[in-house]
Fold:
Amino acid sequence: MAKANPVQIQKHLKGVDYPANKEVLIQHAQKQGADRNIISLLEKLPEDEEYDTPTDLNKAIGDIE
Structure:
């Protein structure tokens, strides 16, 4: 899979309330019309992590790619 663009990811997460966990992020992205690649990437995030800011989330995504 191609690397996800952090701007694209955050576009689909606009309005999400941080801190947020994986489940909240996936649900919000789906409601915002995120494509399968973005959802798939979010699904790879650790189950037990919570992200305090979009920057924290982008770092975590960078770590799994």
